[in-house]
Design brief:
The chain is an all-alpha fold. Helix content is about 85%, strand content about 0%.
Length: about 60
Amino acid sequence: MAPDAENIIELLGPREVIGQAIDLLMDRNDVSRDGAFEMLVQSSSGSRRGVRETAVDIVQQRKGS
């Protein structure tokens, strides 16, 4: 995991990072919380990465834009 990802997790905590990623997915895709969580899980499965790492990527993309 990149240092930036570690900093995000350290500052927010793993649950908060996942929550922020879910909120972003809900907003971007006009889906329910359950739908956004399913998208997060599917994305992490497709990339063979954990949900937390995938959530960090989503949050980092938002902060970078």
